[in-house]
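Example with several molecule types.
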Amino acid sequence: MTYLRRLPKFEYLAPRTIAEACDLLAAYHDRAELLAGGTDLLMQMRRRETTPAYLIGLKGVTELSGVRKLDDGNVFIGAMTTLHTILSSPVLRSHYDVLAKAAAGIGGPELRNVATVGGNIAGALPCADLPPALMTLGAKVRLASSSGERILPLEDFFPSFGVTAARPDELLTGIELPSVPLSSGGIYLKFHDRQSMDMTTVGVSAFVTLEQDGGSFRDVKIAVASGAPVPLRLRKAEAVLCGRTFAEEALEEAALAVCEEANPRSSWRATRDYRFALLKNLTKRAIRGARENAASRTGDLS
Amino acid sequence: MKHLMPITLRVNGEIHELLVPPWRTLLEVLREMIGLTGAKRSCQEGQCGACSVLVDGKSVNSCLYLAVEAQDKDICTVEGLMREGVLDQIQKSFVQKGAIQCGFCTPGFVVATTSLLNENPEPSEDEIRHAMVGHLCRCTGYVQIVEAIQDAAGQLKQQRGG
Amino acid sequence: MNSPVRNTFDVVGQPTPKKDGIPKACGQAEYADDLSMPGMLHGKLLRSPHAHARIVRIDTTRAKALPGVRAVITGADFPGVRYGNLPQTRDYLPLALDVVRYIGEEVAAVAAVDEDTAEEALDLIDVEYEPLPAVFDPDEAMKPGAPLVHDKVANNISAKTAFEFGKVDEAFTHADYVREDVYETQPVKQGMLEPHACIGLWDATGKVSLWSCKMSPYVVWRQLAMGLGLELRNVRVVQTVVGGGFSGGKQEAMPMDFCAVMLSKKTGRPVKIVHTMDEVLTIGHMRHPMKIWLRTATDKSGRILAQHCRMVANGGAYSSIGGFSMYLAGAMLNIPYRIPNLRYEAYRVYTNNGFCGALRGHTNTQICFARDCQLELIAVDLGIDPIDIRHRNALQPGDVTANGFRIGTFAFDECIDRVVQLSGWREKRGRLPKYRGIGFGCGSHISGARLMGHSASAAEIRIQEDGTVHLTTGSTDVGQGADTVLSMIAAEVLGVSVDDVRYIRVDSDSTPVDPGTFGSRVTFFTGNAVKRAAEDARRQLAMIAAERLGANPDDLVFRNREIVNRHDDRQRISLKEAVRWGAFQTGRLIISHGTYAAGDEKIDFRTGHGNLSPAYNPSACAVEVEVDPDTGQVKIVGFWGADDSGFPINPMGVKGQVIGATVMSFGHALFETLIRIDGKVMNPSFRDYKMPLMTDIPRLANFRHDNVITFEPEGPFGAKEAGQGAGTGVIAALANAIYDATGVRLNCLPMSPDRILFALRQKEESAGAPSEVAAE
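Resulting structure tokens for the full complex:
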């Protein structure tokens, strides 16, 4: 066992474009790690959990940063966009506020000024807060390599614990969000002991679209953090609520479905039992909250 | 294979031309090569904020920031806030409002407050608290720190003629 | 010469910013890790991965061969003399010799040209261990046949303390009401932001110097001399600016200090060693986790007739200050309530965990938690108002407790009433919405202790020809404000401003020997020494001024940096002119000293009888909480506290100390615990060892603390301690508030959300009856 050390020795590579970064990845991927914000990776290196010979630093690839509206109405968020940019982006705050708020709840300002959405996703940690929020927004990940580009739905990006579906030579370049329907809204609720800063014990994101009458759910998306070995979309619970009228029994059923589908682990941080209890209660709260947000949305969202 | 990299750091308005190993953090370079020991080595995990410095005006934990990535950025440490021996208002308020006991967290708080008040000159109590969650203090219990930040905001407002 | 009695003071009593605030705000204060010396090397420590093992062999060859490594040492490089905090329990070694007794114990040390190389070298030290059976739980450790942590210490009993006062059995037999509860507390750490750091130098003359962030430099001085086999004259300890202490490793000599100095001997260079924060959170020096059985007998009106307390403390692998810790817990059972009959038994047990010692509040904090939680339940059972039951049992000034504490000033009733008033208790209690509650808690503390061994403080004053007062003591400012308070005392006596006083840090070569900073002793003990030194300086200066002015020295008043004849104010001279005239014209320099020991009474630590402290403080508080029934999370929405700290010499400093102590107790109550599995600390990081943040405290408008001002004749300008007592009632107040909010009673710390949630669930399932989460 090792105590925290100075960073291990490595060579630092600084691409300026996505193409350069992909070329470097192609050449060095078996001996390199991508360095986004660094707040997770540098810690892992300090603990000697990983000791790459090369770090490919992405801070200089400016085309990887930023929030842009695409021609088809979708929104693209570059992988190196910081959490601070996300929580303060007018576009994201007005139309995708579940994401903006999820980002605002991660760590503190010092972390958010440096940590990136790409890092939060590519780290493949089950406790990461953005993947659940993004999944409920229907996000897709864009991957690039020297042989081309591809896009996958975010919920297909986490095949197993600690691993993403990106190939070793692929770079996560960003997230694409579809435009949000009318009468929709979401919320991300996470639990931790203190009022701020803590790792997420359990997090539930819910995004709902209401029927015209406002009383029933046209569509429901639910995803969790720390509810399974990977960030997970909970389709059983979604199915319970889709098309149904909002009512306490429906919530109760959905919460139970969440517990069936989720698979939280017991660790010294929190037991499985406690995480189930939280999942149940937070699911109900999240759906209520999402519904309220959806109901308060008016009119044009372009 | 592993070699030193030449970088130019602009710290508190001064230019430093250095040869650094890529694995040195900004905190280590500030403290050990430039001799600015205001930013502290504490948790080294981004949990306590004692190492905070401003990079392009934003408060970051320098313990988790590579020095080589600070090239071409404007870095401001606590030492850069004083002008020719005169404390700036935030520093004065911290001193006068009892916000300093052991002082180990103080540079981090002062730097973070500088960033906060630049972005939000009249923060509410809640906004202050949320802006400071990245900073631990074990001595003061935070009350006098909040009061110091409020005092600084008030004094600065007056000085602006507000 | 008598000083005229004044009701108003110029300096003491005024809120005064801390004297070293400016360098700290500018990043110029020199903490140990900020120091650098020419040719300095960097050291690192190798730690045991085993909870209990024999060291078979250590081979340092490969480490020594690594380029950049200048020296590698093991336990064999030291004389093999054990040192410690109490003469009867010296069991520390600089580096383990034959046995390691907990995960993290220091086994070897390296000095190299930089930290990176030193770290690499650690991996190259080959240690062959023979793991031994280990024991982690004190109950298990006391059983016959349990692995022995220390050879020849039967049943792993590190310390056993028992005392009895009055007729306990009789009182229980005749009581109207008896109640017994069990409470359990957890291991907590100081959590200061500055990790331990030092620079050691063994120079060519054979003298050892250590620069380090020590709260008790002279304790370190003696321990270094003993462990190194040196005479005291060859050891120098220099205190650097301390970045928080709260007792623990900064109170004594640590392996890093010995190693820095020994590595310096081997290399001929200064050696710096700095702990990483996970090292800090892994090693010993934590608060004793305790299991407390408390049985209390009262009459119908809730008046306490007797208490029987049995306590088992998990002491960890070494003794530290444990013997005293056990005595103190029992002693503190005697205040702030009247306990006419008391029986106390405590066992401190060795286990293969990090060892325990003092931490703000020492063992008083755990006792106050247990006692004030139980008092609340007694009140409920007897149908008595929780405020009334406290008043009914409150100690009064002039009381003498069963164990011989002589209570001087003790405005406990006033503290209680002040909190009731500040908190809006009467309007809130029983009237808050569901899951919102308010709870009360009380505690107390001492103002320094008459210890076995050295208790005395001394101060020296020199007045310079520009009127600057050079004040030297052996006590340390560790952030608590001693530099300012002691300077204020001197300034008040001499009629100058606090900025005219220069207070220097401790250097064993030039400051008077002193026990250091702990047990809330500095304002009281050192403050009295400073006051005496200042009064002596004033006496000397009055004689000189009297000569110069042709006045009677008894008529001279010192104020506004002047010495004036109170009967004829045309006769006046500035203080600095008097000093100059005395020096240049008469060859007299103003050099004075004062000492204070409170040594007039002796404690019998065997029977537990004796007046431990010259003064005692009561404290009271109320906390309002909101509990989230879906998650068990507790939000502290209001806190109101009041303590009797005598006369607050620096109200700004007192406020910082009491709020700091309070917030620390929030953490101990709700979030903090060292999670240990088979002796391994799972959460040695601020990410998982969670201390309160700015968002965890109530909004400022609902976070109030008041001083109930008394004048303690024994204290300097009437002052008593501030900074430990305030935190002692907080944990029980929180427990009682959670109970008020939810009907759930938690007897186990921390009162974490999962425990609360499960207790709530249990309560719902056995509908109606309040549930108790028993000690696990």
